[in-house]
Amino acid sequence: MAVVMTMEWPGVSQKEYLAVLNELQLDANPAKGLLFHVATFVQSGGMRVVDVWESPEAFKTFSDQRIVPAVEKVGVSTQPKIEFQPAYNIYAPGLSTIGSLGASSLP
Question: Does domain 3-100 have CATH number 1.20.1250.20?
Fold first, then answer.
C-alpha cells in the first residue's frame, strides 16, 4: 500500500534544497519507490515536502543511502519532522500534463 510522507524541515533554504537536489541527481538516478514529490517553502521559514512512496521502507532506504549523505555534504544542520500515513486516495487528473513536462527534479 502506498504511503504519504510529510516532512517539515525548519531552517532549510531554497539554496540548500537546490544544492541537495543537485547532489541527488534524481533525473539521472530516480529514487526507487518514490511515486510523487512536491516541495514548498513556508513563510515561517523552512520547507514542507509531501511525497507518495511505495512504502516507508523505500523512503528510509533512499534517505539513509542518498538524502543523508547529500544533506551532510551541503551542510544542512537542522533535522526534519517526518510522518507517514497510509494513502487513502490518490487523485491526479493532470498526470498526463505533468508527464508531458518531462522529468525534472529542479525548478
Answer: no
